[in-house]
Amino acid sequence: xxxxxxxxxxxxxxxYKDAIEYEFNLKKIxxxxxxKYEVEYKGxxxxxxxxxxxxxxxxxILEVKAQKGIVDEHYSWVINYLxxxxxxxxxxxxxxxxxxxxxxxxx
Length: 107
Prior knowledge:
107 residues; alpha+beta; Lambda Exonuclease, Chain A; 5-stranded mixed sheet; two-stranded antiparallel sheet; 3 helices; 34% strand; globular
């Protein structure tokens, strides 16, 4: 909330991610940024991977958005990320509106 209050809306996602990373470091919250996950299909590791914006405490996928509204596609992405990563909780945080918009998803 503090990041949205200070930076407001209208910036690129990467700027909000940088601010989130700064806050995690400041508060000594364990996280990984752009954590790489391999995708397995019938015993084969596929050549393309997915990268979670942030993985917090090794159990929360944090997906950062900076656009108007959270759409069904975002929910689908995070549900798939949870399945692949085995993380139990996903958060979508959208900085693209007048108020910070968050959605929580549980695997």
